[in-house]
Amino acid sequence: MFTPQGPTFRELAVQALSSIEHGYDLLAPKFDATPFRTPQPILHAVESALGRLGPFERGLDVCCGTGAGVGLLRRVCDGQVTGVDFSAGMLAQARAAHPAATWVRADARALPFGPRFDLAVSFGAFGHFLPHEQPGLFAQVRASLRPGGLFVFPLPAPPRVGSKAYWFMLGFDAAMRVRNALWRPRFVMYYRTFRLADVREGLAAAGFEVRLLPLPELGVRADGSPNCRLVVARRPMGTS
């Protein structure tokens, strides 16, 4: 799973027994050498879709990590691009990779922006938010968008029941629940708590208009449905 440049087992264990913030501070220097970084095919597919949805002026990457999404935003936005994350270590890596972007340290559940962005994206961060936190997160993103602005993120289809990916996610979430029941501080990261029906309901409750676009570059399942969809949530015009 990991390249020789990635973290050791001991480093991963220390990270897993830390808080989310401190854990990512520790992992940040080697994060891009792990499988946790958003894969390039997903970034390319989202960028292609955004090219058809634009143009965009200002862009925001929510929970930006080391800046993979910011690199995409800089290619599809004509104006300033901003990344926000609560890990100082991850922001340091992102700033080194993209010095021309703006970097803000903040919790995504309390974004320090007014309605200034035309486009917001997020990649691979939603497992860090418990289901009851998701509507508040969506409301914060909506408040950061101009009327007509888009909040866009990829949402892979759930793995087939009984597949290796299914058992991995099930086992990971079970292990994380046991860890959080026995150890403090908690490290919230679950694969199976971000379901499409709940996401659509939460986005609608936050005041978004929601549609789904297939990402054909990422292939289809046996039943012909896409392996991954792009969730496109629009803040309606004329809303406060």
From TrEMBL:
The keyword Transit peptide does not apply. This is Methyltransferase. The keyword Transport does not apply. Keywords: Methyltransferase, Transferase. Residues 60-149 form the Methyltransferase domain. One of its GO terms (biological process) is methylation. GO terms for molecular function: methyltransferase activity. CDD domains: AdoMet_MTases.
